[in-house]
Amino acid sequence: MLLVWAVCALTIAASYQRLDAINEGNSFQRHKKAFFIIDDRINKSIPPLDISQTEVDGVHIFPCFIRVGAFKNQNSSESISNATVTVLTRKMNDSNDYAYYGYGNQYVGFTTTMTGANGMACAPTLCFHEALIFVAKDGERMTLASNETEFLPKGYFYIAQTRNEEVAFAPRYMGTMYGKRGPVYRTMNKQECENSLTSNSWYFRFVFLSIQEQLFAVERNYRLNMSWYHDSPKSPSFGVCFLKVTVYTNQNNIVFNATSYDRLNRTYGYFISGPKADPTSTDTNVRAACIEYRCPVNEAVLVNVNISPNICQYRESGTTTNVPKINLKENAFQVLIEPGNLYGPANGVYVVRGIETARTMAQKSCLAGFILAGSSFYEGGFPSNPSKQQLATYSCGVTPPIIG
């Protein structure tokens, strides 16, 4: 028995050594088949992409690398390391004698690459295919920056979808364009891709629309008095709750710090977020902060929200009927959420229950201003409407833009 175990162990070790040899110099991670939600609606099971091959089904393939960067916000040069760059590679649809970006195209594999200390990554894919790119940090998706002429060549063709969180394009190595290389590099140019600077190369730039969201739960186990989530995601009783606040601002440092308390003033946890604009709109001064709070189970939950820096003024309440108990102040507000009350989007409250994707659905519904549930979630993407169906509205230091 020990001999069999030893032979198996040596075989496994040799297999890993062969994989390491194949992947030497590649920063992407190999995984088993994984599921991806694309455009908020398509759940795809996709295998890992092996770029060590030169042919697939007798057809020659051309591995290449896409240069992608992750940064703190639209105008910041502060990079974000250890962000996950995912590239889904799919075949071109040329059934009508032209290339088409569409959901019917066959996916051939995925890769994931981590950004380095400079916020940059060279993500593997296949040229002469389609690539779908998205970037996330700690599970929160980032958005393609809108000032594209600063990081991509003028007229460079791509399609941004899902609130600009996903980018589809056809990777081709184009050499030098307008004095810079990128954003696509051949395998032989991978070192150039890795060593290029943002000032001398083209790349896809992803950013946070506001500060990165953070949840600090006092109790992460389920079904305890102070559990943040009372039930596990697999339970039919699993629920996730958000409040929506519309914010008029042109500042990128606005922070909403929300604390959820029980009736004895004990803390369930903290949620930190910031207001986000609709990335597809030219009006970036209208934004929405979606604030997660602990869903009430058997007793009311008090949510205390502080806004910093101290430049915000309360403008109005967005609630209509069945109004939660709310105390609005400058730079802060409190709201008491009682169990059993049918609060909904009309009150700026977004609750989704009974499915594993409840958190994603509740948050995206909050941004959109309406709730889709069940299979409807996969039948259409969520738009972003910061000023639709909010609990309250604040103005936080909107100043005229500098011209000239």
Provide a compact summary of the structure.
The chain is mainly β. The chain contains three helices and 29 strands.
Can you characterise this structure?
This protein has 404 residues and is mainly β. It has two domains: 26-207, no CATH class; 214-396, no CATH class. The protein is 10% helix and 37% strand. It contains three helices and 29 strands. The protein has helices spanning 2-23, 190-195, 358-368, and strands at 34-38, 42-46, 55-56, 59-60, 62-71, 84-90, 107-114, 120-127, 130-137, 140-141, 143-144, 159-161, 166-169, 176-177, 180-181, 184-186, 204-207, 214-217, 239-248, 255-261, 267-273, 276-277, 286-293, 301-308, 312-317, 325-329, 332-337, 349-353, 392-396. The radius of gyration is 24 Å and the shape is globular.
Main sheet, how many strands, which sense, barrel? 6 strands, antiparallel
DSSP helix count? 3
Shape: globular
Into how many domains do the coordinates divide? 2
Helix percent reads under 10%
Based on helices, strands and strand pairing, what is the structural class?
mainly beta
Radius of gyration: 24 Å
Mean pLDDT: 82
Low-pLDDT runs of 5+ residues are 1-31, 374-380, 400-404
- Relative strand content: 35-45%
E-strand count? 29
Tell me the span between the first and last alpha carbons: 79 Å
Based on the model shown, name its key terms:
single chain, 404 residues, mainly beta, six-stranded antiparallel β-sheet, 3 helices, 29 strands, disordered N terminus
